[in-house]
Amino acid sequence: MPKLLSRTLSSTIRRVTQSFPVLLLTGPRQVGKTTLLEQCADPERRCVTLDDLDARDLAQRDPALFLQRYPPPLLIDEVQYAPQLFSAIKLQVDRSQMPGQFWLTGSQKFHLMHGVSESLAGRVAILDLLGLSAAECAGHAKEATPFLPSPDWIERIERNERIDHRSESASTGLLDLYRRIWRGSFPRLALDENIPHNLFFSSYLQTYVQRDVQALARVGDTGAFLRLVRAAAVRTGQLLNYADLARDVDIDQKTAKAWLGILEGAGLVYLLPPWHSNLTKRLVKTPKLYFLDTGLCAYLAQWTTPEALEAGAMSGAILETYAVAEVLKSYWHNGEAVQLFFYRDRDGREIDLLIERDQKLYPIEIKKTATPSQHASRSFSLVESLGRESGHGAVICLKQTPAPLSASVTAIPIGALGAPGSLGCGR
């Protein structure tokens, strides 16, 4: 049996349960939503899953009777199958005014949000869970804090490595790193080497298409949908060109955009917007596409071994994908929202990642190199022209140990993303 790891989000779940009557935990299938909530639950909390067709039928047909049969405190798994429940839950929580009555999970966020925003606004705390973070895999879930470059990063990493000898070294070997990237972050697969990689992902896709794509999104041509998923996977880390994607899959652009919205709503892909001081212009400009699980991405792109992935054409893009997903997890798994962007201008100057926090922009480059130079951060000076104060910068790379590249930029080993206390800006 694979071991159960602590998750960073546990403390946030317990905290918000003291304040909100309803908690909604969203995320892709198989990332451990139900397992996490069961670990956090008191013994009196009951659990019912709407994957059970009888329970689903009752929830859809008679929501009030469903809540009489399954009274709170209650965990309802895969609630997206019965949005009829939201109004009934609203009536019940408004009558009792007690926190922590309902815990809900859902694996198709966009499908859920309409019903939640209409019925449960002000009553529900919404949290996002992805696959295991590097910190969680290394056993440092409680110490993981939101990722933000800091001038004292080197001292903090070195101090924690001296104090905690269990810590995974920041100098993760290249093939070990790509083995982790290739395997992915779904808990069952990440924690049990005996589960066949290909069988897990082929079954995952079949289940996802049957349950979510056909049942919820009403996609008729599932073959074309799977071709789009594969075409998107080979574009991870790239600017999203809907016309090229639609042409490769032989569908129209409107359909391509709608189907990518399904993937985004399921938590399988993330669209990183470009920075622009005008919010409206951010929404219409071209985003970058990232898969949120590198193992699924590598499987879809047909990389059969970690060694082939590391040496292949997607090597740099998959490394960038892994780093962006880790940054997202560091915030979402702490129950925090984060504003992430990239920057690219007409002259080809670019910054891989910008974190906006407290009116500052923190620039980050992600490089597949063990010897980063100051040139790796040459575009960071552009931040001052973007209408925001520049925070400390970072180059996430394959360097063995952290090192300053300048007074305002630090080179950080990508393995340090899982080291205790190395990630954060504090709380």
What is the topology?
Layout: H1 10-17, E1 22-26, H2 33-40, E2 46-49, H3 53-61, H4 63-69, E3 74-77, H5 85-96, E4 102-106, H6 109-119, E5 124-128, H7 134-137, H8 153-163, H9 174-183, H10 187-191, H11 197-214, H12 222-233, E6 238-239, H13 242-249, H14 253-265, E7 269-272, H15 279-284, E8 288-291, H16 294-300, H17 306-311, H18 315-332, E9 339-344, E10 350-357, E11 360-366, E12 389-390, E13 393-397, E14 403-406, E15 409-413
Parallel strand pairs: 1-4, 1-5, 2-3, 3-4, 11-12, 11-13, 13-15
Antiparallel strand pairs: 6-8, 7-8, 9-10, 10-11, 14-15
Helix pairs in contact: 3-4, 9-16, 12-13, 12-14, 12-16, 13-14
* Unreliable parts: 163-171
Number of discrete helical segments: 18
Helix content: 40-55%
Principal-axis shape equals globular
Strand content: 15-25%
CATH class of one domain: Alpha Beta
Distance between the termini: 35 Å
- How can the largest sheet be summarized? 7 strands, mixed
Structural class: alpha/beta
Task: Say what the CATH topology of one domain is.
Answer: Trna Endonuclease, Chain: A, domain 1
Rounded mean pLDDT score: 88
Number of β-strand runs? 15
Multimeric state: single chain
Tag the structure with descriptive keywords.
427 residues, alpha/beta, Rossmann fold, Trna Endonuclease, Chain: A, domain 1, seven-stranded mixed beta sheet, five-stranded parallel beta sheet, 15 strands, 41% helix, 16% strand, globular
